[in-house]
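#structure-requests
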Amino acid sequence: MKIVKSLLFILAFSLISLSCSDNSSNPDDNDNTDYVSIPSKTITGKFKVMISDWSTGHLTKSLIDWNKGELMLNFLYSVTDTIAKTKINADGSFSITFPDKLSNKFFASPSFIGLNNNTNNLKMTIVPLYGWVETVEDGIKIDRQVSFYTFKDKDYSAPEVLFRLYCFSGAGDISGTNNVSGDNYNLSVQKGWNYLKWNNPNMIGKTIDYTAVNDLPNDIVFYIYR
């Protein structure tokens, strides 16, 4: 009799659990997370490998053709949140599409970095998306950060302009000065994925002036270090 009662309890509990479960294919929907709908963005390009050489007594850098084979490219918001991923082909070519919706938990008012002139009360991702490629060096897996830079000189001694990918909840203008770093922001952004760009502070001084662009320039270099 006790066994029958136990089985009936398990059956009843299972039915209650099934009736309360969410069959959505998106795991975040189970948390009733709100999403910000945005236009998707696709980036297409070809990776190079940056080589550093100290053999002459001073640092020189050069770009060589991709020689890493097929690898995965991941864009992460955090160590637990992969936003987009794709395969880098054996010749270094790739195409990656960033999604048309993003969890509201990733967004905050830009006032958190001192940007208080916000015409449309926009929100932005708290941190940029970083790209990572997992390579194998001497049998050991190493995560290499992806760099998106333009260079002033072909000796690649230092990047001239740097880019980081952010997402914005709408279109509008945002400006202000970070009261900790003193960096200046003068952003005119489109809804969705935008790049914050700035000149290399080692070339212009300590204060950084940030602007925003919707697309990368034609002379952008996609690379990882060897």
